[in-house]
Amino acid sequence: xxxxxxxxxxxxxxxxxCIICRDTKNKRxxxxxxxxTGGSVQIDANGRKPGRGAYLCNMPECWQGAVSGGHLERALxxxxxxxxxxxxxxxxxxxxxxx
Length: 99
Fold this sequence. Notes:
Elements: E1 15-17, E2 24-26, E3 31-35, E4 41-44, E5 52-56, H1 60-68, H2 71-76, H3 82-98
Antiparallel strand pairs: 1-2, 3-4, 3-5
Helix pairs in contact: 1-3
């Protein structure tokens, strides 16, 4: 008589790294920024937009560092326009208020 062994099925949780603080967290805890084919940088709330992506924590220091420094441009391999930079700074400031 053969016994069937049940394998425990632990669901895989995707991990991503914040480009500023380098902390590894659950993918859903980070915000994805994507550079689309037109060269504009957008916030990807669902994490499914096509294009090169980078992840940021929801901490104020990470958003300030991404907007002011060149980390985000280096991660996305693009030049961020002033308009996109202002949009990202506003989104980061709204996160600060929500915290």
